[in-house]
Amino acid sequence: MPGSNNHNKVLLLHFSFWLLYFSYRVYDISQHIGFKKAVFYVSIPMSLNILASYIHYFAILPGWILKKNFSRYAIQLLLLLTFILTFRITTENLAFANLITNENYYKTVKLSRVVSTLWDTLSFLIFTGMIRFTLDWFDLENKKKQLENEKLVAELNYLKAQINPHFLFNTLHNLNYLVYSGSKKSTEVIIKLSNIMRYMIYDANRDKVPLKKEIEYMNDYVLLESIRLNEVFKITFDIKGNVHEQEISPLIMITFLENAFKHGVSDQEKDCWINVSLHVTDTSIEYKVSNKKINNSIQHKLKSGFGLENVKKRLQLSYPDAHDLKIIDADSVYQVSLTLTK
What we know:
Layout: H1 2-33, H2 35-67, H3 70-96, H4 111-161, H5 165-181, H6 185-203, E1 209-210, H7 211-228, E2 233-240, E3 247-248, H8 253-264, E4 272-280, E5 284-292, H9 296-304, H10 306-318, E6 323-329, E7 333-341
Helix pairs in contact: 1-2, 2-3, 2-4, 3-4, 5-6, 6-7, 7-8
């Protein structure tokens, strides 16, 4: 489990630090008083430093970090230091007075010794405390990233859920008419609508889908729209490059095609047309949709409408630094160009 692995790494870090410190101190002092005396000489103060460090680490410091109560923390720290210093100086006087016979250091209690012992203990409290702060900071950052990722996934799922509801309603309405009138096209509509629903329910929930599936989805969409509009428009779909080995975030390309139908095709308008091109290279996917403008006021709504704003947000989430979206609003032509870089 990832949590237990991190816990083991922290334990190893602490153990390694104390082992290195103990080894160095014993090696240094053994040059003067011998190995056995050095082990004894280092063990007592080190044991008390360990005791103070982890009382502070587990019992006192969290009160400041989690509850932000500095005054309580300061009082507890002062009590801990008073107890440790008193106990350490007393213990060292009893244990070391005869260990180093030519020194009076462990036979008296001077201010300089109290300050030295205090600084020695504080050094370890500060060091282990910094480890606690660092680990808590990394843990907080990981939790923030996890929450951000969860938020992004939730937002993406929300945006996906908003796609094409009116298209589905219109298709069902048209299907009802075709079935009622006994049209042979009703079976084809049912199949294509089934394909679209399957894609939206199962494939669209993934982060990436094969580009080929997105193209098949758009082809089914075009066929349903052509039936709904009685084929009163012309459409070209130019595909170049290898689309079989590419992946893309789902339900992005369809938005531009849907907008082209919604705002560029009408069964009451003549000579409506839509041009779609998809060029795949080794470094990019270039997608372009252009259509005849049938109403300038409607086209103005398109630029600020939900569909385009939706896809802009999704592009920022799915391709934050790997997309380029350009919109050309000419007198009679509306064109959207999207480049996704790999």
